[in-house]
Amino acid sequence: MAVYDAPVEPGESPTLKIGVDNLRDAYGVAVDSQSGLVYVADAADDTVKVFDPAGDPAVPVDTLDAPPGGFRSLVDASLAVDESATEGEGHVLVVDNLKPGLEFPQVAIYEFDGDGTYLDKLVSRSVGQPGVEHPGPIFGEPSGIAVDSATGDLYVTTGNSAFANVVKYGPFLKNAPPATGGGEGEGGSGAVALAARNTARPSGEGEGGDAGGASASVVEQRRGVRVGFDGKLTPHVLPRHGTAPVGIVVDARISATGGEDPPQLRRITIAINRNGHFTSAGLPACRIDQIQPSTTDGALAACRRSLVGEGRFSANVKLPQQSPFPSAGKVLAFNGTVNGKPAILAHIYGTEPAPTSTVLPFLLRKSHGTYGTTLEASLPQVTGSWGYVTGLRMSLRRRFTYRGRSRSFLSAGCPAPAGFPSAAFPLAKTSFAFAGSLTLDAVLTRTCRARG
After folding, report:
1. pLDDT of residue 106 exceeding 70
2. Non-local CB neighbours of 63 within 8 Å, separated by 6+ positions
3. What's the pLDDT tens digit per position in 203-240?
4. DSSP 330-362
């Protein structure tokens, strides 16, 4: 299995190979961004092997516990890690095609905790099998499964053919009480309980106002305004001394407690822990006039080499003599400058009420104390009098080469003291300033595991 540094350029060589001489018929791969562990299904011996790239990438450090009766067929298997409702290592989901190639194939999703312990399964049968209803979120012979780590939403392919599609379901609800009563057939009561906990249901697409879907880890409320803030740093394992390339996700949600529109957001400030470092030397700088006005594709064409992240933006739009309506847009983050000062240029493109592009500049400033770098943006120049921001999500991550050396736009270390395997630390502090002299602050604390 080959590992590449993103973004991958055509013809680029892999930076690492995993499982050399220890994988014979590999299908499906998943990565736990918190622990850094890599899970691979090997159909040659019907096992799911666990690798730690921070150690010896060729030799598996563990295998997942086999479910009762063992894995039946890991040919065309797929894997995903659900990090939405766990701290530390996420739960691993494995699709096992129990009866592949038959007229009515049978499929199961097996669930394992972060230690590789088997938890439960959800069995489903192909739609159309005589006398059997379709009880769960999988059917056909799915060769793909993914979980949105922010929302927990489940994505599953509907088969492995020219007629296949992808279906989105709601989140896994692991902590909900199990269903009562037994099941029939191969699923048994465990299958019924897992189906109830997952409550998988098609959720549809194109839901307005969704800026990424993360449930808030920190919620601040004052004077009828509520701000939810979430975020994470990946990977979870970082060097105790020095730094390593990392990615960071920040997600803010804004609402009014009474259901009305919140006041206009005027300024947003995000302070990053001093153990995180931004490095743009050698990375091309994008200018606002290159991407404004422009579509998402146009902005990429102009400043692709400066791309450092992406995300979503949502707002309620108020126009004269019109009822407010939600609007959402794609965000592309570019390394750039504003008046000669370093900045992250957030290019926002939406299609409602009409195709519109704006650029939200986040100025980067050095700070002292707990937080080392501050990103600050002023919104009135972007939203004018019509935009009431309800959500902003940005994921920042970029590896590049400068003077023959691999670099990362963002790098960090784990501030665990000597003798301690991990540390809890304030990852980010945010300040949201609204019209009417209202300011809400939120501090997000996360945990890292030290290496070395």
Report:
1. no
2. 47, 48, 49, 50, 116
3. 333 333 333 332 346 888 888 888 888 887 877 788 88
4. EEEEEEEEETTEEEEEEEEEE-SSS-EEEEEEE
